[in-house]
User: Which sequence fits this backbone?
């Protein structure tokens, strides 16, 4: 049983990495980092609802380290971690009471708020927060898209035997 | 989707909409820019005077033209700061994350409270 779970989570990390790579091939949607759909979050919302929050955090952190190592640098690692930590914490908290879409929207918003805070600290300049409104709108849109898609995945996977 | 989902999403959208509305209504022309590197103010240029300036030892080139400021070139890999375009409204900021450099518009008009960073 334990080996099965490790294999499954390994698969989830691989899938999240592929989605992250696919997303990196999409040209920037706006002239600032952080405006993106957040495709790897599909995997995180699925894991959160079908497996558990500890596994979700583990997969997310490992995914970020591996993708930053392969395609990124210290800057992308710092920003990804800042966004992910805040976003996961918010999603885990809200998951008890709210549906997939709401959880995903809050996750998207907190992800971008985390990145703005990281950007302010990174440049030591509070004025960077000027981008917050744009990033909040993009976070809401991205969260809705991911929430709708992962909602379908969570529903369809209810028949799967994921009794880890 | 339950009722509380709609309430929370509605509240989030309302807060963002109000914030953007307030920011749009309080828009104001700026008249000078401050360049910061690592949070330290390194230069100050008037928007009313055209010119081209080399910033941060040449990593970014700032141009001021017709009352608008923008970066014309940068040595960073993504060039997002160049794509951020022209700024002339108070508070607007161009950020170059790889070089930890920012350009912010300020206004000296009376009755203004200066932002302290």
Assistant:
């Amino acid at each position: 049983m334990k080996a099965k779970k490790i294999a499954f989570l390994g698969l989830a990390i691989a899938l999240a990495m592929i989605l992250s790579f696919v997303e990196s091939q999409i040209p920037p949607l706006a002239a600032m980092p952080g405006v993106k759909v957040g495709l790897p979050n599909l995997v995180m919302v699925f894991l959160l609802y079908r497996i558990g929050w500890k596994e979700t955090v583990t997969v997310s952190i490992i995914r970020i380290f591996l993708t930053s190592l392969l395609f990124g640098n210290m800057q992308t690692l710092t920003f990804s971690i800042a966004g992910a930590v805040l976003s996961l914490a918010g999603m885990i908290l809200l998951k008890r009471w709210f549906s997939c879409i709401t959880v995903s929207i809050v996750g998207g918003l907190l992800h971008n708020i985390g990145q703005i805070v990281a950007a302010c600290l990174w440049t030591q300049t509070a004025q960077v927060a000027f981008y917050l409104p744009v990033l909040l709108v993009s976070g809401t849109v991205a969260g809705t898209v991911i929430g709708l898609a992962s909602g379908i995945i969570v529903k369809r996977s209810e028949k799967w035997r994921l009794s880890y | 989707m339950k009722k509380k989902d709609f309430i929370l999403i509605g509240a989030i959208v309302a807060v963002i909409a109000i914030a953007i509305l307030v920011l749009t209504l309080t828009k104001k022309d700026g008249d000078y820019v401050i360049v910061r590197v690592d949070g330290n103010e390194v230069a100050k240029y008037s928007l009313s005077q055209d010119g081209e300036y080399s910033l941060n030892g040449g990593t970014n080139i700032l141009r001021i033209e017709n009352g608008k400021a923008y970066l014309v070139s940068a040595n960073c890999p993504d060039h997002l700061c160049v794509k951020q375009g022209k700024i002339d409204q108070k508070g607007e900021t161009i950020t170059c994350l790889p070089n930890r450099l920012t350009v912010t518009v300020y206004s000296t008009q009376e009755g203004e409270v200066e932002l302290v960073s």
In short: Residues 2-26+38-155 of chain A form a domain with the Arp2/3 complex 21 kDa subunit ARPC3 fold (CATH 1.10.1760.20). Chain A touches chain B through 27 residues (CB under 8 Å). Residues 93 and 103 of chain A are 9 Å apart (CA to CA). Chain A has six helices and no strands.
